[in-house]
Amino acid sequence: MKELRRPALLENHPGLLFGLKSCDDWRPRFHSHAREVCWQQRASTAARALTAAPPAPSPEKEASKADAWSSTRIPKSINEISNGENILGFGANLSADHPGYNDEEYKRRRMQIVELAKQHVPGQPVPYVEYTPAETAVWGEVLTKLEKLYPDFACKQFLDTFSLFNFRPDRVPQLQDMSEVLQQRTGWTIRPVAGLLHPRDFLNGLAFRTFHSTQYIRHGSNPMYTPEPDICHELLGHVPMLADPAFADMAYSIGLASLGASKEDCWHLTKLYWYTVEFGVIKEGEQLKAFGAGILSSFGELEWFQHGKGDQRPVFEPLDPFGKLTKMSYKDGFQKKYYVADSFEDLSAKIKEYATYLHNKNKVTSLDLSILQ
Ligand SMILES: [Fe+2]
């Protein structure tokens, strides 16, 4: 496969990593068009979305992004984390190779949903989105295809919680309904977001047991492909796992560790999030099962992590939050390395230990943490 260069811009906008490689049949499709599109290229797509088209970012906005990396201010409540200000990509600014780039109606529709998200106030119900029949068909196709794979590839916790959400192909779930299930199960809340949040904001949100979720859906021209997080990825990849108490506690631990973290530590936590919540793998007896949303929402990655391709296989290693985490794979599709958890309880304990280390290092006091709401 042609090697795709990692766009330099990603180094400066790692929030793009919070996108996904979602349900896809991209290999045959794009090979037949002499064009190779993969997760890394999608990240590249996202990067270009930041540069290719107007509007150019204002100096104030750029300064705000820079501040988000360097600022170690600890938000005292979820209200202090904006879900619409520090957006690194997407929203309505689609890159030229986004499936919806030339579809003005699609872009208008996205903006409609983005504006709803921006208006949302924490504590209030998530705005209702009346999904169109075309959007519902996209959701239904993705759900139908993925759920057939889950029994073989998904971890036990995912399979146990999946049925709580009563996913149906003829109805795109509302974030509010999903949030209410999570509230009852684990105390987590789903908050709509206008696009890709800065990693610090996103990670800080986890400390308030809040998961920032997109509400718009991928373009209907190819339901098996999206260059960005959309509601299919959020609901099928993330939400069922957040209904598991041990997983939810692990995700909370990452958020806790991010509070007051230095820029370098925040970047390490971005990778820790990547190799757990997005691409985590867990032992089940002699088998490895997926719990990361980036795997669970990708047809190709589900197959790859277990079976490899040809004579190629990914590498598996135990996860040590204190250790160096390998460079995230952007440029050639699936992850080359996955980190394996023994259990969510074990992972959570390790991450909490790491959080304590970071708090001591960054002089985050127990008083700082006790005033969080
Ligand atoms: Fe995700």
From TrEMBL:
<feature type="region of interest" description="Disordered">
    <location>
        <begin position="49"/>
        <end position="70"/>
    </location>
</feature>
<dbReference type="InterPro" id="IPR001273">
    <property type="entry name" value="ArAA_hydroxylase"/>
</dbReference>
<feature type="binding site">
    <location>
        <position position="278"/>
    </location>
    <ligand>
        <name>Fe cation</name>
    </ligand>
</feature>
<dbReference type="InterPro" id="IPR036951">
    <property type="entry name" value="ArAA_hydroxylase_sf"/>
</dbReference>
<keyword id="KW-0503">Monooxygenase</keyword>
<dbReference type="InterPro" id="IPR018301">
    <property type="entry name" value="ArAA_hydroxylase_Fe/CU_BS"/>
</dbReference>
<feature type="domain" description="Biopterin-dependent aromatic amino acid hydroxylase family profile">
    <location>
        <begin position="59"/>
        <end position="373"/>
    </location>
</feature>
<dbReference type="Pfam" id="PF00351">
    <property type="entry name" value="Biopterin_H"/>
</dbReference>
<protein>
    <recommendedName>
        <fullName>phenylalanine 4-monooxygenase</fullName>
        <ecNumber>1.14.16.1</ecNumber>
    </recommendedName>
</protein>
<feature type="binding site">
    <location>
        <position position="233"/>
    </location>
    <ligand>
        <name>Fe cation</name>
    </ligand>
</feature>
<dbReference type="InterPro" id="IPR036329">
    <property type="entry name" value="Aro-AA_hydroxylase_C_sf"/>
</dbReference>
<keyword id="KW-0560">Oxidoreductase</keyword>
<dbReference type="GO" id="GO:0005506">
    <property type="term" value="F:iron ion binding"/>
</dbReference>
<feature type="binding site">
    <location>
        <position position="238"/>
    </location>
    <ligand>
        <name>Fe cation</name>
    </ligand>
</feature>
<dbReference type="GO" id="GO:0004505">
    <property type="term" value="F:phenylalanine 4-monooxygenase activity"/>
</dbReference>
<dbReference type="InterPro" id="IPR019774">
    <property type="entry name" value="Aromatic-AA_hydroxylase_C"/>
</dbReference>
<keyword id="KW-0479">Metal-binding</keyword>
<dbReference type="GO" id="GO:0004497">
    <property type="term" value="F:monooxygenase activity"/>
</dbReference>
<comment type="similarity">
    <text>Belongs to the biopterin-dependent aromatic amino acid hydroxylase family.</text>
</comment>
<keyword id="KW-0408">Iron</keyword>
